[in-house]
């Protein structure tokens, strides 16, 4: 696992190193420019001094000797030897020549016998014996050419020395800065450690929001997201606890009834009484089976439980198939089933669409009285497709419509063997398909009208 502290240390130390190196490079080039200007001025000053002496002797600090071809009215003068420290510096720095026409009259110990530069006057650069020279030339009143030169290597070494002296402290400063940065980051990350301890101390069955009052501003979005997540998890756990308790209660009732009827059947001596008890026991088993199926359906529809497999489905054909499955049950109670629909195609999960239709139509048949009617309408709308299911049952009171889709909710006066999960399943399937569900009274204020709107495919 990557360490946030190590990552910050690497970034900060790398940034410091890059900035320091860039500063050293800038200093090197800036020092080189300043050194060039200063030493150029020194060359020009040295040439002026030689011109002022008429080329007869070298100024202090320059080592000179007579050229082999010095033949004039008087003997050439040899300059006095400079002091030892000046001599060592002169050998490192400046060389000069005095030319009269093509004859070399005077030169320093380090100067070559050939001209320092082909350029007579002014500054120039030349290459002699593999070494680069910076040369300044000037003529005196007798038209003698004085050339003063210096190797470029000296200038480069001075500039490198300045840069090295800037980088030397980095060898000590960077480790020290890294240690200080490491400690500072550790101190700065202490609020995150506190948050981690607070999260680790949360009770599994009671998730409390994290305290954000003492948290740094940068951690506020993280704490807000964590508190939002904890609130959702807590609400989901409470919901699941209620669901489990309600499911246990709903299952306990039919199972207790089945047990009672079986006990009656075992003790009954009248065959008719035994048959009646067994029939009621079978009805209780059917109710328990349906409840378990609906519980499994709800579990499948929970967020994150699965992915929709949408495809193009004919809504009218799916409704017709479901009505055909319920036809025997409706015929036994003389309930009229009707389908009035045009060809409508939607993008839906076929399995979930079948579950939606089965729950709506089964509820309509279940709650309709004998001799009643159930009608199904499918049609296209501007906003998509619409499915309408109406029955002639008791309907749902207006004050109970808001709670009709709650799990295990059964309105006042409800009859039949329902479990109160059908409309909950329908609502969840509609949500998964980005649709809309509306409940209201049927035609003439009788029964229940359910409208489901699907978005365009």
Automatic annotation (TrEMBL):
Region annotation (Disordered) ranges: 66-87
One cellular component (GO) term of this entry: plasma membrane
Enzyme class: transferase
Enzyme Commission number(s) of this protein: 2.7.13.3
UniProt main location, coarse: membrane
Reaction(s) the record says it catalyses: ATP + protein L-histidine = ADP + protein N-phospho-L-histidine
Pfam family, one: 2CSK_N
Ranges in a coiled coil: none
Record localization: Membrane
Kinase among keywords: yes
Ranges for domain Histidine kinase: 246-457
Transmembrane segments: 166-189
Keywords carried by this UniProt record: ATP-binding, Kinase, Membrane, Nucleotide-binding, Phosphoprotein, Transferase, Transmembrane, Transmembrane helix, Two-component regulatory system
Protein name: histidine kinase
């Amino acid at each position: 696992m990557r360490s946030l502290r190590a990552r910050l240390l690497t970034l900060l130390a790398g940034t410091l190193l890059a900035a320091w190196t860039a500063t050293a490079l800038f200093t090197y080039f800036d020092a080189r420019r300043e050194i060039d200007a200063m030493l150029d001025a020194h060359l020009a000053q040295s040439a002026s001094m030689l011109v002022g002496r008429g080329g007869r002797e070298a100024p202090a600090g320059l080592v000179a000797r007579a050229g082999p071809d010095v033949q004039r009215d008087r003997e050439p003068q040899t300059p006095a030897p400079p002091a030892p420290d000046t001599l060592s510096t002169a050998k490192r720095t400046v060389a000069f020549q005095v030319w009269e026409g093509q004859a070399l009259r005077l030169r320093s110990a380090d100067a070559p016998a050939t001209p320092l530069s082909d350029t007579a006057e002014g500054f120039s650069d030349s290459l002699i014996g593999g070494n680069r020279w910076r040369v300044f030339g000037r003529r005196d009143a007798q038209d003698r050419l004085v050339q003063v030169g210096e190797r470029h290597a000296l200038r480069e070494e001075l500039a490198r020395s300045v840069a090295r002296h800037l980088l030397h402290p980095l060898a000590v400063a960077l480790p020290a800065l890294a240690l200080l940065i490491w400690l500072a980051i550790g101190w700065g990350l202490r609020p995150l450690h506190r948050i981690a301890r607070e999260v680790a101390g949360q009770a599994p069955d009671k998730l409390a929001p994290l305290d954000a009052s003492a948290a740094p501003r940068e951690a506020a979005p993280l704490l807000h997201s964590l508190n939002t997540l904890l609130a959702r998890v807590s609400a989901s756990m409470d919901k699941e606890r209620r669901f489990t308790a309600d499911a246990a209660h709903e299952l306990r009732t039919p199972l207790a009834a089945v047990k009672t009827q079986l006990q009656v059947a075992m003790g009954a001596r009248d065959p008719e009484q035994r048959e009646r008890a067994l029939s009621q026991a079978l009805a209780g088993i059917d109710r328990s089976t349906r409840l378990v199926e609906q519980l499994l359906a709800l579990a499948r529809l929970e967020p994150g439980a699965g992915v929709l497999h949408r495809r193009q489905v004919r809504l009218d054909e799916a409704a017709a198939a479901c009505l055909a499955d319920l036809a025997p049950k409706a015929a036994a109670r003389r309930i009229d089933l009707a389908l009035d629909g045009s060809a409508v195609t939607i993008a839906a999960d076929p399995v979930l669409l079948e579950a939606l239709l089965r729950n709506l139509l089964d509820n309509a048949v279940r709650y309709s009285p004998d001799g009643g009617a159930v009608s199904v309408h499918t049609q296209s709308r501007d906003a998509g497709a619409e499915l309408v299911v109406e029955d002639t049952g008791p309907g749902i009171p207006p004050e109970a419509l808001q709670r009709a889709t709650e799990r295990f909710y059964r309105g006042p006066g409800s009859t039949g063997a329902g479990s109160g999960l059908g409309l909950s399943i329908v609502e969840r399937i509609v949500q998964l398909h980005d649709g809309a569900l509306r409940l209201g009274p049927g035609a003439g204020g009788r029964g229940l009208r359910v409208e489901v709107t699907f978005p365009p495919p």
